[in-house]
Amino acid sequence: xxxxRVDPRADRAARTVQVGNRPRILRTPAAEGAAGRRRDxxxxxxxxxxxxxxxxxxxxSRDPAAAGEMPAGGPAVAIREIPLTIVAAxxxxxxxxxxxxxxxxxxxxxxxxxxxxxxxxxxxxxxxxVATGPGEALSDTGSDRHVALPDAWTDAYSPEARADAVxxxxxxxxxxxxxxxxxxxxxxxxxxxxxxxxxxxxAGVQVLSRERAARQARGGSLEMSRAxxxxxxxxxxAVPPLEGVRHEARPLExxxxxxxxxLSNARRLPVDPDALPLAEADFVLSAGNGVTDWAxxxxxxxxxxATRAGTRVVCDAGHLxxxxxxxxxxxxxxxxxxxxxGIAGAPQHLQxxxxxxxxxxxxxxxxxxxxxxxxxxxxxxxxxxxxALIRYIRERRNA
Amino acid sequence: MSSPAEALxxxxxxKGLTIRNRVMSTSHAxxxxxxxxxxxxYQLYHxxxxxxxxxxxxxxxxxxxxxxxxxxxxxxxxxxxxDVIPYFREFSDRVHRHGAALMIQLTHMGRRTRWDTENWLPxxxxxxxxxxxxxxxxxxxxxxxxxxxxxxxAAAARRCKQGxxxxxxxSAAHGHLIDQFWSPSVNRRTDGYGGSLENRMRFGIExxxxxxxxxxxxxxxxxxxxxxxxxDDGLTHEECVAIARxxxxxxxxxxxxxxxxxxxxHMAHAISLPNMSFPVAPFLYLASxxxxxxxxxxxxxxxxxxxxxxxxxxxxxxxxxxxxxxxxIADPHLMRKLTEGRLDDVRQCVGAGYCIDRIYVGGDxxxxxxxxTGREAxxxxxxxxxxxxxxxxxxxxxxxxxxxxxxxxxRGHSVVLFERNPAPGGQISIAAKATWREALTxxxxxxxxxxxxxGVDIRLGTEAxxxxxxxxxxxxxxxxxxxxxxxxxxxxxxxxVSTWDILTGAVEPTGTxxxxxxxxxxxxxxxxxxxxxxxxxxxxxxxxxxxAEEVGTTNxxxxxxxLYKLDVVMTTNHRLTEIYPEGNRYVAVLRNEYTDExxxxxxxxxxxxxxxxxxxxxxxxxxxxxxxxxxxxxxxxLKHRPQPVVQGGxxxxxxxxxxxxxxxxxxxxxxxxxxxxxxxxx
Lengths: 399, 682
Fold this sequence. Notes:
The structure holds 2 protein chains of 2 kinds. Chain A is an alpha/beta fold.
């Protein structure tokens, strides 16, 4: 063979002579190394790496004999804890009355706390959240104080009691502003509070600063703007929720309120999950190309009480109607839980589930994009998981 | 959401102009201009969209207003003299006939052009800051430059009005002269045109004032601008909002056409023209934010490929007009299909960027999947029925075979389509396995859906033989059997695997892998990315000057970005000349293209990409019995006439044709054009 084979590391080693404590590289090998020209570009680059923080630095004239002394990963990056913000003596208070539907802090709730912070922060004010459940979970939303409403109100329809509680808090805490989410529930409480206290409500605020609250009117042809009022409801997605903050959420007492509710929820009406518009479904069971057992898929939807949906390929093939297609080119879903069977996760599909809170994916391919997106991933065949899940649910119900 | 039709089929009124719906095509530069004029090809291309129901079609991306912003070298449009007016008249009559509105984009490119073309004039800009994409350092504009360029804009504006166009926009986006003045990354002037935002806005305001004085207050004048340059030293989003508000409050512009990013380098260019690796509508938020502040209609383009996304953009109030420019290149009849409730028949843009990538290397814009776009004079978008119904047998359900079956079925023929595999798609199904290339499946998904709808007898999982084909008693046989990987003929070639082996899952990539890129196309780069994402330590070697050298300018940066991110080693200028085993590993011998010096790699796996060789066995089995021995009469093909062999009857015999990679390994567009061009005249 006329070709020379070189292993650069061996080559280097052959040219290295020890002079005192330091190795020295000779221009010509001390002794002839292995014949050849074999290179390992990755090893060469590793050898030339002088340091990796804050950004990698390469020195191509670097002595590889010294390369081994470099710690491979560079210094460990310490995870910084978010400092706790304490408003010890607030100059004034802003109440954020939250929905916390079924005990969970909604995105809209987070936006209301963030809006309250907008009003509180520049003047040294404090934000008091008012909601069922403990305050700890509200610390990262920006809550300085928290008033816990009775646990019994979590699932009950209780607008009168909530309105009374807010009125009592307004009486006791004298907040400068009270904010509610402009939702079915928060909106109703706000209007009841307005009626009870005689305060005027500025509803559906879309732009908020300390000086100005604004909203669109007349089908978007008009903007109404004024100084922030005492009672306001906030439109969805008008104020971004806070990130990287930690506040005290110190508990405050709820003054006793003697309410005799005249309204309550008697019973919940059963809803056919498949009759719901997909965009409004809360729990979606979705199928992709990896699903072949459509009977099991339908049965699973039924036992879970989930709304059935699918990918474009599934709808193209006629397994589900077009209005069940999830994705940018179909329906954008906002479910709290998305259970995906056999879906690879094309970008346009993933774009349809960006607002989903929890994704559970079942897929045979560990490298599928859907597995990366998932909060819980099961690497298995949909046809095996679906009947197992049906069996498990039935057993649990019958137990 | 309600039906996309409800949101999109509402007219929009801007001054005296009523646009019939909310969907438009933005000005782009397809390279169809001749002598700087929009002649027949250019006009037919836009007329097709007008026929197809579009509200507003804008042509002439970067149409020039001055001699030092040359247009003709790239087959674009020059509005720098009056000769263009008759063409504008003809053009606007043609588009108005179908109820659509027509506008143009005017611009001076400043430093975003070359000096070594038709006029050999140095480029000019706010400051002599080098533009790397066009490799020039501009001259700083002097007082007489301001005067002549502003006059140039005004004269061009007059020509648009005289030509009967419904309006125009001035480009102040992608780093053209007006936004070169705006952007602190270019403008370093210390006179009244530099420094504060107010000063940086001055040149643009003077241009718009001159233009407005020329065309009057009633004429529709718009502005294309970025909503955020997305670079450290560039225009911020807040500055862009302030610019939009200022220009609109002064009554200078009637609409703003907002995009995200700029285009001063390769990566920025790829981001501003997002390909299939991007989510849909990635920069809608910028247009939405400007809409809140500007108080005038907002237009927006950038990867809005489907009607559902378009409808959401309008319905949720983000924009007034949705531009579906590439979507119309793929399907100019998009809006007609929407109004007719035929959403499933829309041929959706897959974001391959084939159209744009061709124009940036001096070619003409062609659609990867629609062979009729830009060829309206010879290729119909609506296939007419044939005079005589024939029996057509197509073998192979890749892009070529599916298109042959679709066009033949549209012609009214009885079509049988054989496919060996259990699913259609051919090589596209393999290519689409490679991470972001997934969207390619949209091409064959649509074709498959169409041939199903048209009642083609599709025989999946059936390997056609000559006997099976003859048993159908066909009049015409189209062989579209595709190809198989060319494994090369160097020493030890049999020790390598192909990109197909990796992407189909036949071989699991582990350990260290050498990926040899012998074509410079998407194949090797995307396969390398696929392997690296599965944990392999990958090195790509190529005899080219760079990896993925043949991939166009909106796609190549994405490949390179991904390969760098995944720590793939890229070795250029080396040809694979030999492979031999060593233990249970392999040694690849790489020879330097320029010095002939050889070096080796010891790796666990060697993958090669060398294009395909034809699957031509069936063709040769059928050739002897055919009427034409498989010959395609090239003269008839190029003149768009029926093949002589199928003129009249075939009298019990069959005509045989071979198309796509079954002839020679090329690309998707070639396969589809082969099929459509031949079959439309059968």
